[in-house]
Structures are given as C-alpha cells and as structure tokens.
C-alpha cells in the first residue's frame, strides 16, 4: 500500500470499493522534557505553573506533572541538552498571564499582541524549556 493511500484512508476518504473508512480515536500527545533534576522540575511546575505532581519513579530519573487534561513527563538528562519549545493555547490569555505572573513564573516576554495577530507571552522553565502561551 502506498503512503498516499494510507494517508487517504486515515483521512476517512473512500477506498477503492467506495466504502468510507473511519478514524480511530487517539489521545493527546504527552510532552517529555529533558531536565537536569526531575524532582526539582516537578516542584517548579507545581509552585510556579500550577501543576500537580503526578508520579516520580523510585530512581528519580523520570516523573510527571499534570494540570487539568495536560500532562508533562520529565526525564533526567545530562547537560547540555536541547530545550523543548511548546505552543500552549489559553482561551483566557489575560487571566492565564496574571495567574502565572502571580505564581512567580519566569515570564521572558510579557503579554502583548504580536504583529502576526496572536496575543501571547513566553515562559521559560529552569532547564530552558520554552512555552509560548497564546490566544487568537
């Protein structure tokens, strides 16, 4: 089967005999961030970004936090490592900005309307991972 046919089938396009195939349901991806210290990252996300600590493996090399339906995994890595970049949609961007600001998040770019039309602000964590919070 060619990749084009597989792609067409994934999109629910009719197959060669006219039957429409449906897509299965999948969950939201979970980011795994490289960090120098998993426990420290969990505490930072709890204290300054409003997450809850979900779990920490006994060796403390991998753990997770969650907030609502968002989960983030952390994995201990030796530095240097490439920081991750994430775009996070926040329907009430003003309230999100004020909340994270009041919690002491490291806001490296303040809330503003960008030339491309998004209202956004930027947060950087202890390991250099970047989060662009935005709203149309």
Descriptive notes:
With 136 residues, the chain is of the alpha/beta class. It has a single domain (29-135), classed as 2,3-Dihydroxybiphenyl 1,2-Dioxygenase, domain 1, CATH 3.10.180.10. The protein has helices at residues 3-10, 38-49, 93-103; strands at residues 31-35, 52-56, 62-67, 70-76, 85-89, 107-113, 119-124, 130-135. The chain has a four-stranded mixed β-sheet, with helices on one face. The chain has a four-stranded mixed β-sheet with strand order 5-8-7-6, covered by helices on one side. Strand 3 (62-67) and strand 4 form a beta hairpin. The longest helix has 12 residues, at 38-49. The protein is globular and about 55 Å long. 18% of the residues are buried. The model is unreliable at 1-9 (pLDDT under 50).
Query: What kind of sheet is the major sheet?
Result: 4 strands, mixed
Number of domains: 1
Q: What's the architecture in CATH terms? A: Roll
Percentage of residues assigned to helices = 10-25%
General form = globular
Could you report the average pLDDT, rounded to the nearest whole number? Answer: 90
State the assembly state of the protein chains. single chain
Per DSSP E runs of 2 or more residues, the count of β-strands stands at: 8
Ranges with pLDDT <50 over ≥5 residues?
A: 1-9
Question: What is the CATH domain class?
Answer: Alpha Beta
Helix count equals 3
Structural Rg: 19 Å
Strand order of the largest sheet: 1-4-3-2
Structural class comes to alpha/beta
**Strand/helix succession:** HEHEEEEHEEE
Task: Write the CATH homologous superfamily.
Answer: 2,3-Dihydroxybiphenyl 1,2-Dioxygenase, domain 1
End-to-end distance: 40 Å
CATH fold call: 2,3-Dihydroxybiphenyl 1,2-Dioxygenase, domain 1
Beta-strand portion reads 25-35%
């Amino acid at each position: 089967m060619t990749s084009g046919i597989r792609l067409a089938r994934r999109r629910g396009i009719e197959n060669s005999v006219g039957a429409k195939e449906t897509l299965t349901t999948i969950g939201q991806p979970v980011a795994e961030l490289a960090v120098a210290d998993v426990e420290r990252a969990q505490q930072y996300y709890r204290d300054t970004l409003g997450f809850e600590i979900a779990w920490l493996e006994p060796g403390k090399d991998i753990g997770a936090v969650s907030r609502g339906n968002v989960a983030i995994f952390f994995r201990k890595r030796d530095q240097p490592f490439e920081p991750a970049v994430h775009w996070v949609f926040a329907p009430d961007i003003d309230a999100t900005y004020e909340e994270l600001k009041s919690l002491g998040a490291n806001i490296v770019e303040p809330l503003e309307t960008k030339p491309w039309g998004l209202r956004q602000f930027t947060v950087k964590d202890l390991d250099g991972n970047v989060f662009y919070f935005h709203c149309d």
